[in-house]
TrEMBL record:
This is Saccharopine dehydrogenase-like oxidoreductase. Residues 12-146 form the Saccharopine dehydrogenase NADP binding domain. Residues 150-408 form the Saccharopine dehydrogenase-like C-terminal domain. It comes from Prevotella bivia DSM 20514. InterPro entries: NAD(P)-bd_dom_sf, Sacchrp_dh-like_C, Sacchrp_dh_NADP-bd.
Amino acid sequence: MNNPTQIANPRILMIGAGGVATVAAYKIVQNLDVFGEFMIASRRKAKCDELVNAIHAKGYKADIKTAQVDADDVEQLKALFSEFKPDLVINLALPYQDLTIMDACLACGCNYLDTANYEPKDEAHFEYSWQWAYKEKFEQAGLTAILGCGFDPGVSQAFTAYAAKHYFDEIHYLDIVDCNAGNHHKAFATNFNPEINIREITQKGLYYENGEWVETEPLAVHQDITYPNIGPRDSYLMHHEELESLVKNFPTIKRARFWMTFGQQYLTYLDVIQNLGMSRIDEIEYEAPLADGSGKTEKVKIVPLQFLKAVLPNPQDLGENYDGETSIGCRIRGIKDGKETTYYVYNNCKHQDAYNETGMQGVSYTTGVPAMIGAMMFVKGLWRKPGVWNLEDFDPDPFMEQLNKQGLPWHEEFDKDIEL
């Protein structure tokens, strides 16, 4: 059962100080009637302090604590959690660090929320199995873990749950469609961490049909999809983690797919990066000249994709000149009262609106806002039950209501051609 009691003056610890974390921090300080003490921790404390200074420069008076922590180190995490005693840890670090943070939460009696599921550093592969394996541990500890509370995953699952609750007796076909029609005016840049982004896009595609998972070559399946206020865009079938939980939680689904748009220039650069070996995630040995000018060299090991990340534009710095908008939603076909019906629910987010409010572009905004709302749902007692949960395991209605209030209003279309 959900616990309806709100936590008074809750202590919130957010790990991460990148673009998504920046948006989530702004949104937390805009809702201090719900949230209490707030700490931001990251590998570099100076980055946390810069974020706090930016928030104060916008006129927010919140008292925000900062700390240094290595999220790969369970003992460091435990020391920080034991000192600050958070009611909820919001993990906005890297997906590699989900399990260490969950381990520290279990050790210190903290509840947990993240926006992306775990993936190992040495393999470009992500699935929920690693985190779902923690379900019994969190149940026994009486702690809540909320997985994937961004937009996709996250809002896409709340959209689906909302559709199932209000408009369908059975969902048969689900297509999650994600378009970024923005322009950051860079030759090549990724909208979130380049290492994670490129690993995700270069994987094989995967979709669900008639009880089986069907694999496709990377970006091999694509078609034009028409997005509201944007028009038709070439959209590519990809593997995305929320499909894994949605087909489990809505067993009437016959087919579930995820589509994302990419411009031709982006794909050309991506092709070159792969052909040059710069998307590799294995270590290579490189003989590097020493910086002291002695002419001596030393053998060092580098991961090509991590090196590429170091020379690409920082996604946090894209917002100022970013124009256009995103459009993300769910196109659903199924049965209501014996009749076939279609439903399309979506949000459009303008990059400049996101930048004006938080200094970040729309992709960070559409992930950071739902992370804050998920934390709000937990604090209010609306989404609180021991175990490890995906968003569709909770009542979508209060979450959907807050999307409209917190900057991500959604729109509905009924019984129209959903193209897919």
